[in-house]
Amino acid sequence: MSRTSDRLVLRTLDEAVDLLLQDLRSLPSLHSIRQTSAITVECAVDGSIDELTACPLYSTAAIVLPDGTTGLLRQLEQSMEYGVLATLRPSGFRVSADEGRPDLIAAVEHHLGWVNRPGDWDVNLTRTGGGWVAEVGPLSWMRRFGRLERLPWSTTPLVAEVLVRLAKVHKDHRVLDPFCGTGTILLAVRRREPTAWIVGADHDPRAIVIAKRNTGRSAHLTQGKAEALPLPPGSVDRIVTNLPFGKLVGSHRANRTLYPAVLSEIDRVLAIDGRAVLLTEDKRLLREAIDHQKALKVIRQRLLRYNGATPTAYVLTRTRRALR
After folding, report:
1. CATH architecture assigned to 7-144
2. Which of 92, 109, 196, 206 is buried most, with the most CB atoms less than 10 Å from its CB?
3. CATH homologous superfamily for 148-323?
4. CA angle centred on 136, ends 306 and 115, rounded to 5°
5. CB count, 10 Å around CB of 93?
6. What 3-state class would DSSP assign to 295?
7. Which helix (H) or strand (E) holds 37?
8. pLDDT (tens digit, 9 = 90+) per residue, 248-279?
């Protein structure tokens, strides 16, 4: 078990801090957990960092450092002795801040024996609005969970994690993504609930090929349209998907036909007590389609902000009328 006195700043998605806080507060190895901004949480680790490493709701983690070269080096030395860096054993670093950069590089090389490798770093020393931090490369999302093959319109991994949390996937649930793309949401389901039976469909053969490589044998994938799924009625417990919207996928005109058709298919394949989570920026069109259909209702919604987009995730269940 590695011991640490490091304070860490974790960065997540805007509007996902509450979910990250919920996850972190359930981990016995963490304490002094608090939100520090709309996208950051600060915490301290007591013991193994394995629990923190397994949490998929943050993208980067950084050690909080004191100002001044002497204090900064001392904190890094302590972390290497019995903190986060003792477990990860870094060797390469970079300094991305302009302030005192040459002198700091020389000091780190001399006192810590690390190699200045800007293109292949384990620790990135940078200055934020709150002061100096050491971003820990091995704790980045991709280093923890692996780099995924993607298409330009693929769902962002943290967005997928949020959607799966909203879906409330339980043991042995059957979970469908009818616009699965390269499989990002399906993998998030597998991380959240390993016993879930996951199935994905997409009309794009390129996406299905990539999704098969990303998911291996953990998902049942098929090429096909979301408006005509090869599934029997009432056969899935949860539907989680990123609907076509924006400039890269589909169009508002196409969605005017697509969204009502997809909702009808969701109504057909979803179990009586099922739940669907649909993400879109074509919000008015989806709400109009839901209201017109009358079989499903919105019970919750969450606005997300990332990469300049502001889509909303809608959580749907059946209406009382549909249950009769």
Report:
1. 2-Layer Sandwich (3.30)
2. 196
3. Vaccinia Virus protein VP39 (3.40.50.150)
4. 130
5. 24
6. coil
7. none
8. 566 767 889 999 999 999 999 999 999 999 99
